[in-house]
Specification:
With 406 residues, chain A is an alpha/beta fold. In chain A, 41% of the residues lie in helices and 17% in strands. A two-stranded antiparallel ribbon of chain B has the order 1-2. In chain B, a hairpin with a 4-residue loop joins β1 and β2. The chains are: A alpha/beta (406), B mainly alpha (292), C alpha/beta (238), D mainly alpha (340).
Chain lengths: 406, 292, 238, 340
């Protein structure tokens, strides 16, 4: 409620200011980074360093904006996408964010990647009142419009995904004992918390096995999980370690119910290295179409994405979900910019981002829609469970949302 | 007790990863009395070469030999092009060059082959050998390869003239020169051999940890730990040290609360510092006794 | 004076920008022993290092009539010039026998090496007793013997000896010089000897040079220098 | 000189906040490199692990501000003290380690630091992986400066004090003892210098400098997290040290500027291969000036001033150059007749 009033006041103030200063251009309003011909968008990605695999997302987004520009831009304005490397180091993120805002004077920062990196710049962005839009991390804390009205998430949060698994387990394996393999950082702990919250103590977690990204393998952790007597494994690992775990579990001849977090459910970069036989029966959730899944072979959305990849990002990995992710996120931003019309102020962009209604995109699962509101800064919420049949993912059950508030 | 045995066995398997890399570390140390901080990245790059050869349709053995041969030549080239011109510069400058080499190889590999993990085949298969999958046939094969390299190195250093010349060149270059040893060639040869051993290590390690540009970053630290435990001058010690670090790490990870679970790298750090302070020459390294 | 085996003409040497030797003309005869005398820091060691190509030089160095200008140390060694450096250059962590094998590293006649090792043990029986021992554990005298033995493994025509008596007990020094004399006579090894103990050096040598701050101040037969008043007072101490 | 100071003082009024922020960070890195230089350049001990001390300094400041509401300026001495103690303690086992081995031990320390920071027992203070967000200090006494400008001046003042301290330390008896250990530990010990004590002390002082820099860094970035203090930071500090010139106090400023700006330049040149470009720049710099910028400057100054009477600093400069000139491929068997 309070927020609404805030918005109204801001909008009113802006309107008055605009009328007072530029009566001739009443329809067109710009903040730094926007003009009649151009919209400057900032972005920060770990192109180098330990998380460099994610750099693919930024490259896809750059490619998508090239496509948009080739097709005439957004409302006649070209997108100037400025993407910097922070090597996944928060001080560098701060430096790059300030460079984007103060030196390049971008309209907003879009899809900056990583929880620690975004935490580092969140206060700065909000103090400067520059949108930190659709951050590329699944932490739950980005959906907090009350404290951080200039920061918005994009993908379904880790916690809400974990809720979905909790629901599934409570319904289908209520007698099971759960072992969790998780990366010992915010991402892993978010999932763990989500699972615990979702289970509400109705099922036991008999073992928690954290690993560090510096560990060469997770073999030792998997052995400990098995030794704990668990018959359900919740695999909260990044692609490389997730693949190792799938492989090791198979090598041990162990056959637990295996839940694989969405971050690592790429067929190309996880299940294939792990071995399709080893991965058969693994469960996960999806909110976008897996490009390697033959289900979508003839899907028009898939074909559009595939054509885009061939034309604008031929070096990109078409088996990686990162390229789909970047494609979808870029589409979301373009939708916001379109909706903002000629009022390209930071206030208005943020306001439009918070009023997306029922957007559907090519590579989202059928039926999945993007919705936001002044109190709902979590654009994507719907996910569907899926099971790997040894060749491809098979979706099952309804679209679900984990319903976790900020 | 079961768990203990399982973890020890699995540690042995992981340890053979470290042992392979530790051998390469000891090799370069034998040649230049120095640690190569880019050793892991060189091994990673060599492994990508093998992978690329297989992508082009080469059979495993050819890719293996091709990558090792490429690495041998590339190792010599790196020494000649990069390090020879500044061999008189301070040792700190050498470390900066290692850092530069690290950055270049990592970045180049990512640029050419991207950062997604790739699977890498093993000639030994991955069926369970014993202990219910705790030691797979690949693990055993990897250990076999490590021991084979160890024996070859032993024979090379102890029983060939050129091996002796290399040891002399590393131990006392000026004196070696005065005995007619071509020190420059020995250093190049050492680089080449270390790079080739690194290639073999990478090819053995990749099926376990998967292939990607960052695969070696942390393994290198464990490799250093293994080499230090065994003694930087002893190839046998390096293999033993690598295996020991693998086992210690797993057991500590299982039985020491917090410390073991979350601080496995810290254990490697602790091992390095403890061994270096208690017995700097390592468990099997030769202490250099000098009377003045 | 027999034909010159080694001859330097106008030899100058530099450490970086600092000049250390200023135009030395030295000669070592075929089968002869030449000694360089001079105070600490006069440039004696540098002169030996110059011959071995280990410092930056100008001027000419000729060995068997061949100019060595621009040669690498390894190649100079291969001509048969064995340099026994001060501090002996022992490979401390290798065994005695390995040290000897290193000494023979530049030779191509591998078959003769093991017989040479035995021959060298003949001169230095103590080394044979310690053949499997790490060289760093030898006493100072033994290490000096090892250094000579290692140099002999090269089958040198010329030995450059840098302070062989340094830090050794008088008895050991006497034995050592006895061996040097034998080597010179029996094996026809020429020597360029730098030695603090001028008396010993002049006994062994047939030719001597006196250097002060990188310049020759006196040249002549060893006997002549021995009899020179100034040399006697300054270097022989009587 | 005066013009330089004036420029540094007036700069904030002329340039953008972002650039000022970068300069502030560069200055902070310079102080951290100065700390490393005290250890390596003046005492002859290696470290590839100074990111650990930087992290301890940063976390000390952040925790004090976050949990105890300590004023930001008090966090600097606290960070320095904490790092001095930790550095001194780490220096004790390090005493037994020479050159390469010490490099290895500190390398491992750098790698392990992020894990230690987020470990569960420390989580109540460190905030675990989430890190700690802190407030930026505002200018006091109603000075008409924004927080970027104030922080710049504050950092500059601190850095000036630290540099003055370092120069005085190296001129003092203690400094001479520290350098004597570098040049010849046996002789130093024979002259009655307590080598163990001085080496550990130097480790402590070095850590103190880097720790204060870390605290300043936390204030400037307003955020600390384990990912901020990875091995890459240690590498960067080390590179800054060598590029600036080992054993050169003014060179550290150059080192700080280098590690902040050159990676950005590399990124400008090629996005995909930024790291490779950075690597090539490093190689080029090492080739052009094998002893760092200070070495190059020394060379130029030395050439032009050779005919004049020997400058006093030349002596210390060549001594520090000798320490670092020990290459892995040369052992010191040269005779005693090297020109003095």
């Amino acid at each position: 409620m309070r927020n609404d009033r805030h918005w109204l006041m801001v909008a009113a103030a802006m309107a008055i200011a605009a009328l007072a200063t530029a009566p001739a251009a009443a329809q067109k309003k710009y903040d730094p980074g926007a003009s009649d011909s151009e919209i400057k968008i900032g972005n920060i990605m770990p192109y180098s360093g330990p998380a460099s695999a994610y750099g693919e997302i930024g490259k896809t987004e750059a490619a998508y904006f090239r496509k948009v520009n080739d097709e005439g831009g957004v409302n006649g304005r070209k997108i100037n996408f400025i993407s910097y490397d922070d090597a996944y180091s928060p001080p560098k993120t701060v430096e790059q964010a300030r460079k984007l805002v103060e030196s390049d004077e971008v309209l907003l920062i879009f899809q900056s990647l990583g929880t620690p990196s975004n935490t580092a710049i969140q206060r700065y962005m909000n103090a400067k009142k520059v949108p930190q839009l659709f951050v590329a991390t699944g932490a739950t804390k980005w959906n907090d419009p009350k404290h951080f009205p200039w920061t918005m998430g994009w993908q379904p949060s880790y916690q809400s995904e974990a809720h979905i698994y909790a629901q599934y387990l409570l319904k289908n394996h209520p007698q099971g004992k759960i072992g969790v393999l998780y990366q010992n950082d915010d991402y892993g702990k978010d999932y763990l918390k989500g699972l615990k919250d979702g289970l509400k103590g109705n099922m036991p977690i008999v073992a928690e096995a954290p690993y560090e990204t510096t560990d060469p393998t997770v073999d030792s952790q998997v052995i400990n999980l098995k030794a704990s007597g668990a018959d359900i494994v919740f695999n909260v690992a990044t692609p490389k370690f997730a693949a190792q775990a799938i492989k090791k579990i198979a090598e041990l001849g162990w056959k637990p119910v295996h839940l694989l977090n969405n971050v690592s459910n790429s067929v190309g970069s996880v299940l294939k290295p792990a071995g399709f036989d080893n991965a058969a029966g693994v469960l996960s959730t999806a909110y976008m179409k897996d490009p390697t899944d033959p289900t979508w072979k003839d899907d028009p959305g898939y074909k559009k994405w595939s054509a885009f990849m061939d034309k604008y990002y031929p070096d990109g990995d078409k088996t990686s979900t990162f390229t789909v992710y970047g494609y979808l996120a870029a589409q979301t931003l373009v939708a916001v910019l379109k909706q903002s019309g000629d009022n390209l102020t930071r206030e208005n962009v943020m306001k439009q981002a918070a009023s997306l209604k029922g957007l559907e995109f090519d590579m989202l699962l059928p039926g999945s829609r993007i919705n936001t509101g002044p109190n709902d800064f979590a654009p994507l919420k719907q996910m569907q469970m899926e099971r790997f049949n040894g060749e491809r993912w098979e979706l099952f059950g309804p679209l679900m949302s984990g319903e976790v508030g900020g | 007790m079961d768990l203990f045995l399982h973890q020890a066995l699995a540690g042995l398997a992981t340890g053979s990863i470290y042992a392979c890399l530790a051998l390469a570390i000891v090799m370069i140390y034998a040649a230049i009395n120095h640690l190569n901080f880019a050793q892991g990245e060189m091994a990673m790059f060599s492994t990508f070469i093998a992978w690329q050869l297989m992508q082009w349709g080469a059979p495993y053995l050819l890719a293996f030999v091709g990558a090792a041969a490429f690495s041998f030549v590339a190792g010599i080239a790196v020494e000649r092009v990069l390090f020879r011109p500044i061999h008189k510069a301070p040792v700190l400058s050498h470390i900066v060059l290692f850092i530069a080499l690290f950055a270049i190889l990592n970045s180049l590999a990512g640029f050419i082959w991207d950062y997604n993990v790739k699977s890498f085949p093993t000639p030994f298969g991955s069926r369970s050998l014993f202990g219910n999958g705790l030691v797979s046939s690949h693990d055993a094969g990897m250990m076999g390869v490590a021991f084979t390299m160890l024996v070859l190195l032993y024979v090379f250093f102890r029983h060939t003239r050129i091996g002796l010349a290399m040891r002399a060149a590393a131990a006392n270059p000026e004196s070696a020169r005065l005995a007619g040893v071509r020190v420059g060639r020995m250093i190049s040869l050492g680089w080449g051999m270390a790079a080739a051993i690194g290639a073999v290590a990478g090819i053995m390690i990749a099926p376990v940890v998967f292939l990607d540009p960052n695969m070696m970053t942390s393994i290198l630290v464990y490799g250093f730990a293994g080499a230090v435990v065994g003694g930087l001058t002893s190839p046998g010690g390096a293999v033993f040290g690598g295996l020991a670090v693998g086992i210690i790490e797993n057991l500590a990870g299982t039985y020491i609360p917090y410390v073991g679970r979350e601080l496995r790298l810290t254990i490697a750090l602790f091992i390095i510092v403890a061994v270096l302070t208690a017995k700097p020459s390592g468990l099997f390294g030769r202490a250099i006794v000098t009377r003045v | 004076m027999p034909a010159a085996l080694l001859e330097t003409v106008g030899l100058c040497a530099f450490y970086g920008a600092t000049q250390v030797l200023f135009g030395l003309d030295l000669k070592v005869g075929e089968g002869g022993v030449t000694t360089l005398l001079g105070a600490n820091g006069a440039g004696k060691t540098t002169a030996l290092r110059a011959v071995s190509g280990m410092v930056q030089t100008t001027g000419d160095i000729r060995f068997c009539g061949q100019s060595l200008a621009g040669w690498a140390t390894e190649d100079i060694v291969r001509l048969g010039i064995a340099h026994v450096p001060q501090g002996r250059g022992t490979f401390v962590s290798q065994t005695v026998e390995e040290n000897l094998k290193i000494g023979a590293m530049s030779r191509r006649d591998r078959a003769a090496i093991s017989s040479d090792i035995e021959r060298v043990y003949g001169y230095f029986p103590r080394l044979k007793e310690r053949r499997k021992q790490q060289a760093g554990t030898l006493s100072g005298g033994e290490q000096q013997m090892l250094a000579l033995a290692r140099a002999l493994m090269l089958r040198p025509k010329l030995m450059l000896l840098d302070e062989p008596s340094f830090g050794l007990a008088p008895l050991v020094v006497r034995d050592l010089f006895e061996i040097l004399r034998t080597l010179n006579r029996a094996e026809n090894v020429s020597m360029l000897l730098v030695e603090q103990n001028a008396s010993l050096a002049l006994d062994l040598a047939d030719r001597a040079y006196l250097i002060e701050t990188g310049r020759l101040v006196m040249t002549g037969a060893a006997q002549d220098l021995r009899n020179d008043e100034n040399v006697r007072r300054a270097y022989l101490g009587y | 000189m005066i013009a330089g100071v004036a420029l540094a003082l007036l700069l904030p009024l002329a340039i953008k906040g972002f650039f000022l922020f970068q300069l502030t960070l560069a200055l902070i890195y310079a102080v951290a490199i100065l700390g490393l230089n005290l250890l390596t350049g003046f005492n002859g001990q290696f470290s590839l692990g100074h990111s650990a001390f930087y992290a301890i300094g940063a976390y000390t400041a952040a925790i004090l501000m976050d949990q105890a509401d300590v004023a930001y300026y008090w966090t600097l001495p606290a960070a320095g003290a904490a790092c001095f103690i930790v550095g001194f303690l780490f220096g004790l086992p390090a005493l037994r380690l020479e050159g390469l081995y010490l490099a290895l031990a500190t390398f491992a320390l750098a790698i392990a630091t992020p894990q230690l920071l987020k470990s569960t027992p420390l989580e109540p203070w460190t905030g675990g992986v989430q890190g700690i967000v802190i407030l930026k200090p505002e200018a006091p006494l109603g000075l008409p400066l924004n927080s970027d400008q104030w922080l710049y001046y504050f950092t500059m003042l601190t850095a000036a004090l630290m540099y003055a301290g370092a120069v005085n330390l190296m001129k003092s008896r203690t400094g001479r003892a520290i350098m004597a250990i570098r040049d010849n530990p046996i002789a130093a010990s024979a002259m009655g210098v307590n080598v163990a004590l001085y080496k550990s002390l130097t480790f402590g002082v070095s850590a103190l400098y880097t720790g204060v820099a870390g605290a300043l860094g936390a204030l400037t970035v307003q955020f600390v997290a384990p990912d901020s203090f990875t091995f890459n930071l240690a590498i960067a500090l080390f590179v800054g040290l060598v590029i600036g010139g080992v054993g050169s106090i003014p060179g550290t400023l150059l080192g700080g500027l280098f590690i902040l700006f050159v990676p950005n330049i590399a990124e400008e040149l090629s996005k995909g291969l930024a790291q490779a470009v950075y690597g090539f720049i490093l190689i080029a710099v090492i080739y052009l000036m094998p002893s760092g910028a200070a070495g190059l400057i020394r060379l130029i100054v030395g050439r032009t001033a050779r005919s004049r009477s020997q400058p006093v600093h030349f002596e210390t400069a060549s001594r520090s150059a000798r320490l670092t000139r020990e290459t892995p491929m040369s052992s010191s068997t040269s005779g005693d007749e090297n020109a003095k």
